Amino acid sequence: MNVESEMKTIGRIIPDEYFDALALAEAYTRNAAVAILHQLGLGRNSVGFLPVDIIMERLGVIPQCRHAFLWLLNQAVMENIVVARMVGNSLLYGFNREAFAHGDRTNERWYTDKLPSMFTPTVLLLDHVARHYAAWLRGEQFANVILFKGGALELWERYFSSENYLYRIHNDFAAELLLREVDRVDGPISLLEIGAGTGGATAAMLQALIDVGHNRPVVVEITDISPYLLRRTISRLESLVPPWMELRYRKIDFNEPLNRQGVAEGGTTFVIAVNALHNAADIVGCLRGLRGALADVGGIVLSESLCGADQMVHQEFIFNLLGHRQAGPVRYFQNSLSRFLDTAGWRSVFTDAGLTADVIAGGNRKEIALAAIVR
Ligand SMILES: C[S@@+](CC[C@H](N)C(=O)[O-])C[C@H]1O[C@@H](n2cnc3c(N)ncnc32)[C@H](O)[C@@H]1O
């Protein structure tokens, strides 16, 4: 499949303004990371270059948060606030006092200077998480409370919704691919979405079907490991649902066999997975299982964030609170600090799963988003 022509039929190539916006969000995240390290006391009693574990011990960071701390430290390296140096076989980190003194390390000026409203959902969640980060790193707060309790869940919902310019590309890719595929199938269709969460992608897909006047029977079953999230999502989306559509939910853990969770072999027209599958414990096995649920005419509509070898994904500032897991063999991952694969990694997954995939990898300036129909 020629990727260029595929991208044209889908009608969306990531525009330059998206990359510019993303660069701003990444700078914002780096700034927040430096501020958190400073709040923890990094550089207060500077003693030259030290291994990460010693730095953590001195700052009171608990071992369970090592990955997140390392990620923050690398953000500071990108800003030259922290300098990384190999000494023998050890990687050591030192604080660059001069560079730190040079800049304003709060993010407040950004509100007035740089951030248009399209950043609002991203910045609200980043700022909320940033406020609790140091306490979490010291083991004084629980990640689940920070991310999901009180008003935090609303921030989470807005973040994954298509209101968020920096995230909506993943929802749009899924919706557009689905529309194209649905067009190729006659009669009633059934959609099974895994990891549907707060329904950002679900809303985009339902709206797309409504906007094109699909008007044929569609059963949409949204699933997630969290029934609580699903119930909230259903009640938010109910008012959208037209008479020809049935929307329902079911708890499904995609790390467990689907047929033991009430999903019939060959019974689903399209499985949808938007920024969910990278969480699977065995990504290849999981994809094979999802393939087993498909009817002959069907396909898996996959949409994922990407991370290239020398890149960072600002989403991880938030997701690192949930721990760090890479799904399966390390060869699928270009970047040891990321939970996201790159395009080549996904292609290896499809091959290893014995599946075919039409892949659209959007982004000529960096790896951003992948969408694929997998069969
Ligand atoms: C990053 S969110 C996906 C965003 C979602 N597609 C949306 O548009 O809002 C990942 C989702 O996967 C779910 N998840 C994680 N592990 C899972 C598992 N083993 N089985 C099912 N869902 C899982 C999480 O609960 C979360 O809602």
Could you explain the architecture of this structure?
This protein is globular. It contains 15 helices and 10 strands. It has helices spanning 3-10, 16-40, 52-59, 66-78, 97-102, 108-113, 120-137, 143-148, 152-160, 168-182, 200-211, 227-237, 283-292, 316-319, 343-352, and strands at residues 50-51, 82-87, 90-95, 189-194, 218-224, 245-251, 268-274, 294-305, 357-362, 369-374. Helix 2 packs parallel to helix 7, helix 7 packs across helix 9 (152-160) and helix 10 (168-182) packs across helix 11 (200-211). It has 2 domains: 3-14 and 167-374, Rossmann fold, CATH 3.40.50.150; 17-160, no CATH class. Bound molecules: S-adenosylmethionine (SAM). S-adenosylmethionine is lined by residues 160, 194-201, 224-226, 229, 252-255, 274-276, 279.
Question: Nutshell version of this structure?
Answer:
The protein has about 375 residues and is an alpha/beta fold.
Name the CATH homologous superfamily of the largest domain.
Vaccinia Virus protein VP39
Radius of gyration: 22 Å
> What number is the mean pLDDT?
92
Q: What multimeric state do the chains show?
A: single chain
CATH architecture heading of the largest domain: 3-Layer(aba) Sandwich
Can you summarize the main beta sheet? Answer: 7 strands, mixed
> What topology, given as strand order, has the largest sheet?
6-5-4-7-8-10-9
Record field, number of beta strands: 10
Do you know the CATH topology of the largest domain?
A: Rossmann fold
Number of helices: 15
